[in-house]
Amino acid sequence: MMNSVTIRQALEFIGLLSTSPSNPYNLCNTFGIEVIDNEPINKDGYLVCDRGCKLIFISSNITNRHRKKFIISHELGHFLLHREKLYCCTDISEIGISQINSNCQENEANYFASEYLLPQEQLLRMLPHESIRFSDIFKIAAHFDVSVTMAAMKATRLSNAEDEILLCYKGQQLKWFSSGDTGLCYKMLPQKCPVDLTRAPLEVDIGGVWDTLYEGTVHQEVFNPFEDQRLVLLSGTRCL
Ligand SMILES: [Zn+2]
User: Fold this and answer.
1) Distance from the CA of 75 to the center of ligand 1, in angstroms?
2) Does the predicted model carry a pTM greater than 0.85?
3) Topology (CATH) of 4-117
4) Is 232:221 a contact under the CB 8 Å cutoff?
5) How crowded is residue 186: how many other Cβ atoms within 10 Å of its Cβ?
6) Where are the domains positioned within the chain?
7) What is the pLDDT of residues 87-101, one digit of tens each?
8) From the CA of 154, how far away is ligand 1's center (Å)?
9) Residue 80 is inside which H or E element, if any?
């Protein structure tokens, strides 16, 4: 990844200009960047910087408010960190930052957007000392005005208790996960969810289901961010 000092400096610089919670639309105004979001372009977003013209395009197909904020912040990352005239970005993802992406500049722009919208230092101050619950995550998402998914992913990764595992299933199939346990890898997790997520209660203490990950009873919470995706948040005594 690019010198993380450079990303940190860019964030400190805009920190002097911006308000809390971060508002990328205001930041675009400050930099004289026009945002165009009423064209159904076939990418998530474009940044165009040429001969004094500064434009960010976001596809009109993207209607989710938090996703739009993330994409504009991603393009602002290119504007501040990189010096090309044109960026065309597909599959911009709040989740992308947790995975290996071959394109370094895309990674950097995602990292920038994530830190701009949900700064790690401020997030750490809001984390509980015990295991994180969705009630904590909802507060964090509301405070920073970001998606529950992004708040959940980042909070579980930075957890004080370090026993939580956040799993995202599409249907019953594992899509991605997040955890403070850096030794945990995708292959170690149930690829097919062992509980029927269409019937799972929002909150339950259960045993015998997550035995490869936890000993005894597990606290399990389920949240449905959209469509057939389910976030499953587990906490309890981890198997060593
Ligand atoms: Zn990009």
Assistant:
1) 6
2) yes
3) Arc Repressor Mutant, subunit A (1.10.10)
4) yes
5) 11
6) 4-117, 128-238
7) 788 878 777 554 444
8) 20
9) helix 65-81
